[in-house]
Design a protein that fits this description.
The chain has 273 residues and is of the alpha/beta class. It has one domain: 3-Layer(aba) Sandwich (Rossmann fold), CATH 3.40.50. The chain has helices at residues 23-26, 28-33, 39-55, 59-73, 78-93, 99-110, 123-133, 162-175, 192-197, 208-217, 245-264, and strands spanning 9-12, 114-122, 137-145, 151-157, 183-186, 200-204, 220-222. Helix 3 packs across helix 11 and helix 5 packs across helix 7 (123-133). It is globular, with a radius of gyration of 19 Å.
Amino acid sequence: MADQPRTEAAFFDLDKTVIAKAAMLAFGPRLQQEGLLNRWLVVRALWGQIVFRYLGADEGRMQKMRETALRIAVGWEKDTISALVDNALTEVIDPLVYAEALELIESHRDAGRRVYLVSASPEEIVLPMARHLGVDDAIATRARVDADGRYTGEVEFYSAGVHKVEAIEREAARHHIDLEQSFAYSDSITDLPMLETVGHPVAVNPDRGLLKEAEARGWEIRTFDNPRPLREGSITAPRPRTIGAGAVGAGLAAGAALWWRTRRAKPTSRWPW
C-alpha cells in the first residue's frame, strides 16, 4: 500500500497575532454587562494586560493568569459562556482582526494548506473564532466542567508551551502533515516550542524575548498593525497608536497606584488574586 500523500499546514497563535489584543480581555466588558465580572475585576485585568504587554510573558505570569481566570469562572455555566461569545463575536472580535493575518490565512488556504488557530485562550472563544475566520480547526485550552455543565476551576487541557506542540503533533499524525514544510506564527516567547516544531517559523509583533530569538536564528519577522472589520457594516476600530515611553510610564504608575490602594483598602467583593 502506497504511503498517503503528505500535506502542509499553517498554525496561528491568536492574541496579538491574528487579533490586536487578548481575546479574553476583549470579552471582559461583555462579561461585566452580563453580571459575571464586577468593574474592579475588569480594571485589574486591564492592569494585568499592561504588565503582560510591556514586561513580557513568561511561564510564571502565564501560570498566574491561567489560575486567576479559572478561579473567576468557577460556577459559570459553559453553555452560557459559549452562547455569549457566539452572540458577541462579530461586535467584539471583528474590529480587532489584523488585515495582514487574514491575507496570510487566505494565502495558505489557496496553497492547499490546513490552517489552525492555536491558542491558550479557552475553546469557548477560540472554536467560534476558527469558524468565524473559516480556518480548518483550532487547538485551545479546555476547562473541566461538572455534571451540571459548570466550570470547576480545573483544566482538562492547557494549550500552551509544550502542550501546544503535543496537540500539533497529534494533528500532524492524524492528517499526515509535514511539519518541516509547515508554518507557525506567534508574538510570544512562550510559543518558542511551537515555532521550533515547524520548518517555517514566523515572529509576528514579537515581544522582547521572541524578537531576540528570531533575530539570533534568522527567522522571518513580521509586523501586523492594521486591524479591520471582517464585514461591511461591522464596527470600525481605530488604528492602534504607538505608545511612547511616557505613556507606558504613566500607565505603569497608574497601575501601581491602583494596586497599592486596593491592597490597603478593605475588599468589597471576592478577589481572584
